[in-house]
Amino acid sequence: MEAGRATTHRIAHRTCPLCEATCGLAIEVEGDRVLGVRGDDADPFSRGFLCPKGAALGELHHDPDRLRQPLVRRDGELVPATWDEAFAEVERGLSKIVADHGRQSLAVLLGNPVTHHLAPAFYLRSLIRAAGTRNLFTASTVDQMPQHVVSGLLWGDPSAFPIPDLDRTDYLLMLGANPIASNGSLLTAPDLPGRLKAFKPRGAKLVVVDPRRTETAERADEHLFIRPGTDVFWLAALVNTLFTEELVAIGRLEPFVVGVDEIRVLVEPFTPERVAPLCGIDPATTRRIARALARAAAAAVYGRIGNHTVEFGTATAWMAAVLNVLTGNFDRPGGVMTSSPVAARIDDRAPGGRGYRIGRWKSRVAGHPEVNGEFPAAALAEEIETPGEGRIRAVLSVATNPVRSYPNSARLDRAFAGLDFFVAVDVYVNETTRHANVILPPPSALEEENYELTFLGNAVRSFAKYAPPVFPRESAPGSAATPQAPSEADLFAKLVLILRGEGAKADPARVHDALVEEYIERECRDAEGPLAGRDPGEIRNALAGLSPVGKLLDLRLRTGWHGDRFGDRAGGITLAKLAEHPHGIDLGPMVERFPARLATESGLLELTPAPLVEDWRRVRARLEQPRPADGLLLIGRRHVRSNNSWMHNVASLVSGRSRCTLLMHPADAASRGLESGGQAEIRSQAGRLVVQLETSEAMMPGVVSLPHGWGHDLPGIRMRVAAAHAGVASNALTDECVIDVASGNAVLNGIPVEVGAVESRA
Ligand code: SF4
């Protein structure tokens, strides 16, 4: 479905690809220019909501610093090259490294934006397989890996996130999340402000627990300060209270839940009185919240980044899950549920599956166990720097900026500078890609087909929306063989072919066709599947005329639970039908999926899997330690105009006063002789920064907050707007040696720091 060159004024509808909220956009276009972006009032899911980032999508598309042509390093400089030259250079560099040092000398790094695009969703598995390396690193271990581990171990599916059923809940306990700024995470629900506003009229309560009175806490019925990193103790005290006050009531799923008595024993020492000095929440409040959770008609406990990027991230996610199960709110409307995406099969089947394993192999240097097939981001620098067989010498990265988003950014910057070969698929020359030998820029999001496959899989409603490209892809300067820049699917297919040793000149159709054939054959062979016994040729013919990603998406939709099953179910969902409904189709709220969705080997919901019980020893040991001396603890911060490290080159999003400031309670500032608006020095075990101080009563005393993703001050980056609003890199302060052991997740919150006057350095 290629768009022709547009010459007239028109409105293009699609889903915003910038965050998890999946807002509908109405994009006003004249010729090849975006004139403006509004929220799509007719989108039944987002109902016209739009945040400043979505409104800036046109600016991002037209950003003169966004790469439109590959760059190849020649004589030390990154210079423009044709696509043919760039792919040839990738082939030369990668084949030499693999031939000389083997496939484990190559690392694949994936960043967050890949989850918003169709081609990566379909092609990355092939790319990783073709790379043949175990050195896979993604943004998951600086973000949500603890939740994958808990979902995998408790109910057998690491991708089945417990999503708070926002629109139907009576009581939402939210920890370490600020969806008014982030617009939701592991929770796709566009227009979070509107959905939270609807709580009061229906009598629902929102309680926010956070070391900062965030924008979300401001709208809550109740806000509780908690010391960073101690949520696990407080959640354990809530569980303890459920047992001591006989409030455990699992309900419908009780026959499928095991481990309740073991949980009772594990949390026994975690009384509200015992955890109060650690967490800063008085015992009476803890008991009151536990009772409210248990007695609400439907309640949900939802923890996010501030719960996951801490020393006990997995244990914290575990206790949140345990609370939801023990109060009968797991898989209950208004509690936490798992999504029912339109582009996925939902089968009626007996509970049980292959289960979930971690630690199937270990990292070379520190012996970190793999989790979800990847190693901790925190281990990347040591794997590049430490000599020996299997040392990472080459990197293939896709849409990631680890020099800003991984812990200990200074070490990682040095490590990247020491690579033998580095290929980056990216739209900017940023702090990381400035070290690349080749940069391959994918098309703008507006030049690709659009369906938010990943995030509609975490949505509070079953919703489907497809859009063709708004613009045709730009021409590729200087290349007779490839007059148009490759589609994202062609780009990934080329990389697959190079990694397989089939060469840069091989036809990407080989990869496209193989993916489609594999899907069709598998579905037609599956005796219980929606295409059981069908002729593969008939299915293949039905897809004729679609683009490679269009074919794969159509297959997913038509074999999905609302799909037309290629003619077997009249009126079912197809790609063509979605194309006729440019505002999207809403197919209702989340539905109960358990026990059928239980994929553990036992077919049960296992509350006490061995790796989590083992990890609990760390939590238990910390409970015995005296409360640490009253130092400062550093936490992160989101802003609605910021999106990790990659949108700071959009002028409208960084204009006005600096948002990269260190927030501190006025009393903490006064006791250190610091003034709001002045510069302060912040030091941690890992590094130091000088940053503008901003005092705020919204901070818990003893806690300071700095946003992440900034620090655009390194030589060689080509992001002029970002460089003019550089800010500081918070990951100069985070220590890659401190991780959440059970998941490998980086610890980015609750970092011990000292803050003082800048002169104190002397
Ligand atoms: S909230 Fe997210 S999806 Fe919605 S407009 Fe903003 S960036 Fe886009």
Detailed description of the structure:
The chain has 762 residues and is an alpha/beta fold. Among the domains are: 157 residues, Rossmann fold, CATH 3.40.50; 199 residues, Dimethylsulfoxide Reductase, domain 2 (3-Layer(aba) Sandwich); 134 residues, Barwin-like endoglucanases, CATH 2.40.40. It contains 26 helices and 28 strands. The strands form eight sheets. A seven-stranded mixed sheet has the order 5-4-17-16-15-6-7, with helices on one face. It has a six-stranded mixed barrel with strand order 21-25-22-24-23-28. A four-stranded parallel sheet has the order 11-10-9-13. α3 runs parallel beside α18, α4 packs parallel to α18 and α9 runs parallel beside α14. The longest helix has 19 residues. The chain is globular and about 70 Å long.
**Overall body shape:** globular
Proportion of strand residues = 15-25%
Radius of gyration, taken over Cα atoms and rounded to an integer in Å: 25 Å
Helix vs. strand class = alpha/beta
Corresponding CATH architecture of the domain at 165-338 and 594-618: 3-Layer(aba) Sandwich
Features:
26 helices, Rossmann fold, 762 residues, Barwin-like endoglucanases, binds iron/sulfur cluster, Dimethylsulfoxide Reductase, domain 2, seven-stranded mixed β-sheet, six-stranded mixed barrel, disordered N terminus, alpha/beta, single chain
